[in-house]
């Protein structure tokens, strides 16, 4: 069997993926390794023979696909989070990450660990696969040809030992801190549940009994009550018509509305009676609701306000579904390829409205190969440009940093002219998954024998201790500063710390602990910055330890 795998690297790659992926779903005390299990299966196969390894192009291609796709999906959230408390949260992340890198360098000198292994420990302790790619890229660019294979294996050895520590250590630190500090997540949730929370939406009919003052428009009603309710259509007597921002409500009107439950209650109290027995949503005599896939270039990458619905067919978007989440539409909200919009329109116009948005399931399942490849090429070119360090030396972003930064920029823009850079949600998930599996399987098989050699010579103890310290100190420091010094609710603090660690398993564990999704806000806020920051910091670690 070993001979067959040595002669067929493609079979080796597929076997590693096929065994590793399901193993990552197995829970042990509520903890799973996720797709990271592919790395360990790859290491196990690599230990069988010195030549049991996938071609280098496999992990390089997987790495580029993964980080570029991550950048495209994270771009919009990376920019938008700075509009709130994003600056302070990312400053916190930067300070803690720098402290963790300094600790890693100190432990490397204390234990006399190989520089490449120390860089891998940092990446594994922080569960940072893109940073590991950055470390490998930096070594690949500077290592002598005769030592390249050995030096490339060092970061993977450190990563493979420290990665499970990074997953488990984060969860244990959070668990200990929440018990010591006696955190009540349910009480925090009641305070944090604000108007901008769009995860729970209600559609109902309100019977208007009084309007004060009489000339109050729908827009002014929302503004004066600090709400963002969508008024879709109005029934006045026997007449149906669309609700516009300038529409003035009158006593006796029946208004179909959508919004967060607490905002619905507030508006219903102001206007009259909630949930009248007459359900306008079921009346399809003149107007019709339809859920439509956004697949047309005319709509993709444009804000809802830029669509000028009132000047076209008069349709009203009442709901936007993206992945598993539903959002109330806002004028500044950018529609993405693969979104599902719930549209209200007159029956005579519904076909034209559907054609405008596209409604092609096939289109939202495809990737525009031209724009995707072009964006990736731009990222690879950026990764080859040397950036000088003060005092001498230079750094290249490589095949990890370049595509990530370009992905974030293009994901933020969404489109330039007729070129749409964003990916359908389903395609984005698949590409991230495939890219990460290729990356982990590739570096795992190429480093398994080196890991076996290191452990057989007794070098695993110092790696393990360093990984534990870097993981737990980083997690505790982040939680302490965020919760005790900055006075952030623990629900948000744990999300920020999970974002610092870029730990998807950690975020899943946090959701189980808190019982809500509010930690996603903290996670999304710092995730892109932390991803880029760790790619830069791992290069600095290699310089500080004498590898570069």
UniProtKB/TrEMBL annotation:
Concerning InterPro entries, the annotation shows: AAE_transporter, RCK_C, YidE_YbjL
List membrane-spanning regions. Answer: 28-49, 56-75, 87-105, 156-177, 369-389, 395-413, 425-443, 463-481, 521-544
Q: Which residues form a coiled coil?
A: none
Task: State the compartments where it is located.
Answer: Cell membrane
Q: What is its main location?
A: membrane
Keywords linked to the UniProt accession: Cell membrane, Membrane, Transmembrane, Transmembrane helix, Transport
Q: Pfam families attached here?
A: Asp-Al_Ex, TrkA_C
Q: Among its keywords, does the record have Membrane?
A: yes
Q: Where in the numbering of this chain does the RCK C-terminal domain appear?
A: 189-273, 275-359
Keyword check for Aminoacyl-tRNA synthetase, yes or no.
no
PANTHER family membership: K(+)_H(+) ANTIPORTER SUBUNIT KHTT, TRANSPORT PROTEIN YIDE-RELATED
Q: Record's family?
A: Belongs to the AAE transporter (TC 2.A.81) family.
Q: What is the name of the protein in this document?
A: Transporter
Q: What organism does the record attribute this protein to? A: Geomonas subterranea
């Amino acid at each position: 069997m070993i001979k067959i795998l040595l002669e067929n690297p493609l079979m080796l790659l597929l076997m590693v993926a096929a065994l590793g992926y399901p193993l990552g779903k197995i829970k042990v005390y509520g903890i799973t390794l996720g797709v990271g299990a592919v790395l360990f299966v790859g290491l196990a196969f690599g230990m069988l023979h010195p030549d049991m390894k996938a071609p280098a192009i496999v992990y390089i291609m997987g790495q580029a696909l993964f980080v570029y796709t991550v950048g495209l999906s994270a771009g919009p959230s990376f920019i938008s989070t700075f509009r709130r408390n994003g600056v302070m949260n990312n400053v916190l992340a930067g300070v803690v990450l720098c402290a963790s890198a300094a600790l890693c360098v100190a432990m490397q000198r204390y234990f006399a660990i190989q520089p490449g292994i120390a860089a891998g420990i940092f990446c594994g302790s922080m569960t940072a696969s893109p940073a590991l790619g950055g470390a490998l890229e930096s070594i690949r660019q500077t290592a002598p040809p005769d030592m390249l294979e050995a030096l490339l294996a060092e970061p993977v050895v450190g990563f493979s030992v420290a990665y499970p520590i990074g997953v488990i250590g984060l969860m244990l630190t959070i668990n200990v801190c929440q018990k010591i500090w006696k955190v009540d997540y349910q009480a925090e949730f009641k305070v944090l549940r604000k108007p901008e929370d769009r995860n729970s939406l209600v559609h109902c009919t309100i019977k208007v009994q009084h309007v004060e003052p009489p000339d109050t428009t729908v827009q002014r009603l929302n503004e004066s009550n600090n709400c963002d309710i969508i008024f879709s259509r109005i029934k006045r007597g026997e007449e149906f018509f669309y609700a516009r921002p300038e529409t003035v409500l009158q006593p006796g009107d029946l208004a179909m509305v959508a919004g967060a439950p607490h905002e619905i209650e507030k508006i219903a109290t102001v206007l009259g009676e909630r949930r009248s027995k007459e359900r306008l949503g079921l009346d399809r005599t003149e107007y019709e609701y339809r859920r439509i896939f956004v697949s047309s270039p005319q709509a993709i990458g444009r804000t809802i306000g830029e669509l000028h619905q009132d000047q076209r067919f008069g349709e009203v978007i009442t709901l936007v579904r993206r992945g598993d989440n539903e959002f109330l539409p806002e004028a500044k909200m950018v529609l993405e390829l693969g979104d599902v919009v719930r549209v209200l329109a007159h029956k005579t116009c519904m076909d034209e409205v559907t054609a405008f948005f596209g409604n092609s399931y096939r289109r939202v399942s495809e990737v525009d190969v031209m724009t995707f490849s072009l964006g990736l090429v731009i990222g690879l070119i950026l990764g080859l440009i040397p950036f000088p360090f003060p005092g001498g030396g230079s750094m290249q972003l490589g095949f990890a940093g370049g595509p990530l930064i370009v992905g974030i920029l293009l994901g933020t823009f969404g489109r330039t002219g007729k070129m749409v850079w964003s990916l359908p949600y389903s395609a984005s998930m698949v590409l991230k998954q495939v890219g990460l599996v290729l990356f982990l399987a590739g570096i795992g098989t190429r480093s398994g024998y080196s890991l076996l050699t290191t452990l057989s010579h007794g070098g695993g103890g110092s790696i393990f201790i360093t990984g534990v310290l870097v993981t737990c100190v980083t997690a505790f420091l982040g939680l302490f500063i965020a919760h005790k010094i900055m006075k952030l609710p623990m629900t948000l603090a744990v999300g920020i710390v999970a974002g610092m660690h870029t730990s998807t398993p950690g975020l899943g564990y946090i959701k189980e602990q808190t019982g809500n999704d509010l930690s996603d806000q903290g996670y999304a806020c710092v995730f892109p910055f932390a991803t880029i920051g760790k790619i830069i910091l791992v290069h600095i670690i290699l310089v500080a330890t004498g590898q570069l």
